[in-house]
Design goal:
Elements: E1 3-9, H1 18-31, E2 34-40, E3 46-52, H2 56-66, E4 72-76, E5 78-80, E6 86-88
Antiparallel strand pairs: 1-3, 1-4, 2-3, 5-6
Length: 89
């Protein structure tokens, strides 16, 4: 399944609890999307999320349903390690 990095910009600090995360995960499941993990900026107003999804459109649909921004969606095809080696995702 393709892997995507999503940049989300929030107007206010992100305040997500277990109940909110469960709701996001349920919506994602409906769209065939799986949230792998996210990085949260120091000011808590931006996240960088890694997802598995059939398409960028599926991520956009899930984000819209969950009321979340999806400002930038980029498909990832490989990782680069500190030694310069590439590994397909």
């Amino acid at each position: 399944m393709p892997v995507f990095m999503i940049e989300r910009r929030f107007a206010d600090e992100l305040d997500l609890n277990a109940e909110g995360a469960d709701g996001v995960n349920r919506i994602n499941a409906d769209e065939g999307v799986q949230w792998l993990y996210s990085f949260l900026s120091a000011d808590k107003r931006k996240t960088y999320c890694l997802y598995e999804a059939p398409s960028a459109d599926a991520i956009r649909r899930a984000a819209e349903r969950a009321g979340l921004p999806a400002d930038v969606i980029v498909e990832m095809t490989a990782t680069v390690r500190p030694d310069g080696s590439l590994s397909r995702i």
